[in-house]
Amino acid sequence: MEELKNQPVSAPASVVTHNTVVVIGKSKSVGVAFLLSFLFGPLGLLYASVVGGIVMFFVGVIAFFILPVVGGILAWIGCIIWAVVAASNANNQSIQQARSLQR
């Protein structure tokens, strides 16, 4: 019995540590992106996607001259859809980056 008392206790071969990763960055609100693009069209789209805002500005101008009312409305709806998708994708990208840092 005394032989067992004097023997050292060995540590496990692998030790699991948990790291906490804090990601500091701005998330984009899908609701705000929708509201801004609904109210301001391509200018509101700039909140979610700068490239999208610039592209849709020119697409909207061209669409308005080709089909004066319908083209403008379709371009406006395109801005809303682009803004919502861009804001959602930006948030998903930041989540994926945080998960890759955790591994």
Give me the secondary-structure topology.
Elements lengths: L1 H4 L24 H11 L1 H4 L4 H17 L3 H33 L1
Main features:
single chain, 103 residues, mainly alpha, 67% helix, 0% strand, rod-shaped
Main sheet overview = none
* SS elements, strand count: 0
What is the overall shape? rod-shaped
Structural class from helices and strands? mainly alpha
List unreliable stretches of 5+ residues: none
User: Proportion of β residues?
Assistant: under 5%
Number of domains: 1
What is the CA-atom radius of gyration, in angstroms? 26 Å
Mean pLDDT across every amino acid position: 84
Distance between the termini: 45 Å
What is the helix tally? 5
Oligomer designation: single chain
Helix content: 55-70%
**Which series of helices and strands comes N to C?**
HHHHH
Q: What would you say this structure looks like, in words?
A:
- The protein has 103 residues and is mainly alpha-helical.
- The chain has one domain (29-102).
- It is 67% helix and 0% strand.
- It is built from 5 helices and no strands.
- It has helices at residues 2-5, 30-40, 42-45, 50-66, 70-102.
- α2 (30-40) runs antiparallel to α5 and α4 (50-66) runs antiparallel to α5 (70-102).
- The radius of gyration is 26 Å and the shape is rod-shaped.
- The chain starts with a helix and ends with a helix.
- The model has no long low-confidence stretch (mean pLDDT 84).
